[in-house]
Amino acid sequence: MSGFLAAAIVAATPLLFATLGEVIAEKSGSLNLGVEGMMLMGAVIGFTVAYGTGNPAAAMIAAFAAGGAGAFIFAIVTVSLQANQVVTGLTLTIFGSGFSSFVGDRMIGQSVPASVLKFFAPIDIPLIGDIPFVGSVLSGHDAFVYLGYVMVIVLSIYLYRTRAGLNMRAVGENTAAADASGVNITLYKYAHIIFGGGLCGLGGAYLSLVTVPIWQADVVTGRGWIAVALVIFASWNPIKAFFGAFLFGALSILGLRLQSMGIHISQYLVDLFPYAATIVIVIIGTHKNRKEDLPPGNLSEPYSRENR
Amino acid sequence: MIFPFMAIKRDDIPKKRAAVIRISSVLLSLLFAGVVLLFFDLNPFVVFGTIIEGSVGSAARIQQTIVKAVPLTVASLGVLVAFKMKFWNIGGEGQIVMGALAASFVALNFGDVPRPILLPLMAIAAVAGGGVWALIPAAFKAKMGTNEVIFTLMMNYIAIKFVTYLQYGPWRDPASKGFPKIPNFSDNGLLPSLFGIHIGWIFALILVVLVYLFINYTKKGYEIAVVGASIDTAKYAGINIPSVIMIAMFVSGGLCGLVGMIQASAIEKTLVYGISANYGFTAIITTWLARLNAVAVLFVCVAFAMLLQGAAFIQLAMNVPAAVAGVVQGVLLFFVLGSEFFLRYRIRFTGRGSLAAKARGARKNPSADGQRGGEVYETGKIDGESSADERTCGETSADGEEAR
Fold it and tell me: Any idea what the Cα angle at residue B133 is, between residues B132 and B139, rounded to 5°?
């Protein structure tokens, strides 16, 4: 059982990073549907740098920068040039997947250098690791997973306990009011779109550096879209995002577990579960009516002063 | 971001100027893509030249280009009907797969039926398969307002995984040992050719005309456009919105389903899980570039088919990954999306003075509580008055006219 929980965490981590990234973008009012593309950009650039330098920190920074660069394009086109966010996000996904196949073409089948693998080896935390169940969630994971936990805490504090977080939520809820109260709308939107994109890039890098440390085309396989759905499931809240990602991580490894328990069901049908569950979540999400469960008021609306 | 210029909203734009802006956005995107290629030690002129040579350089290559243009055009027409309603149907891939699945079910089980009966039956099954697959998210959208972007997208993965299951499981051809493959259709289930290209191209041309007429000259087409333009107007006009959503999505999914039948029958000669080959996604770009116009869709899709065919060619000829097409497509659409801004606004350069003023204003802003009241007052003032510097931030229609 604790092995299952630990494996679920590994499956959940890329989803967690991407979901947190999209929460940040959406909270500041931007519906960036390019998550899948930004994850792919982070995955391929992270892998390229790890492969070329053998330096894990450089690989993570590069993956963050790659996701952020994709998001920067999105920001220019939707914030400054006020284009439709849905279409721009889809374009970013198409661009990102083309980019990752193009850049990664010559690395297919190559593996991550040993120095990077060593860095991302599981680290046990003394004492905490001995607690039943919770121990296998909190301890015995790689540095990347712990960074994800730290991000959940840091981002919840940032969103709900800081002035900048308040301003950022105001931009997403009511852009005109935030503008009138002196918040620099353009700066806030750019900063949060780019930071969110960076987190998505890290989520992608986890897939190419840790989950399967060998480069393969299309490593993300729809996880970016599941993350977009998880944002709704999590009601735009980083802590709930953690539980959502964990649930989906568990769901996605369920098939292997069932088979090892002797229950025979086609792997291809089991692969379908997370996607079907995402639909269920989106349908349930439609029924949320409590105020804190609703999307940011001005989500996906381009803002210009003359139109307010 | 602080720019040393200001944007002034324009009421309308001369057609010539609009064309110049659109064409220059396409040229700029090619220039940008060229610079990206340079980063990878590729000569952009050689790459673009080889793409053109590979797509129209010989009769056989032109045929290959048309073979790629057919599914793209029909899928784009499907996407167009949904987008016209501002229903973001990202599920083209899955609808193509389900259409192919339904057509294959007919072809594999009734292979002895004569061709003139079997092919129409397959087409009807495909339209129903793709249409019903699209109706599921449409029904939830119409009744409950469920987000259709994620719903239609997840339906893609479900369709593809399900067909993968069939291909590796129950439908697997026992005769092909070791290789997971569904049996080929009988000859009756294969589309005939005309001028060396399967007759899908004739369907595509007819469908362009039909969809153009449907959108522009029928009551339902008009209602779809009204729902897309404004839900409130549609309600006020007494349009039955759920019914419009369902009908439009059935048409949209049905057209994508037909793509599945064409590809299964003419290209693969059976059902494979990769049958949609990204046409459902690429159709989103082509439809948007064609500005939701059915006739323009045809031309954009032919251009994109050239890009796809050319990219497949350079993979062989220059050992450049065909994924370069995805990069070029993405860059192209980014530029065209961005250029729409310049159709709506005029840009007037204001020089460094106002840049500095704007920067000063921006620096003053960050959230010190004491300044709040003052900021509100200032922002209000910007809208009312129009001193040269402050106009950069807040434009009113009066300002716009004055500037003209």
Answer: 75
